[in-house]
Amino acid sequence: MSAIVADMRRAVRFIRQHAGEYGVDPNRIGVFGGSAGGHLALLLGTTADSGDPSASDAVLRESSRVAAVVAFFPPTDLARWGTQRVRQHYRP
Question: Three-class SS of residue 70?
Answer without folding.
Answer: strand
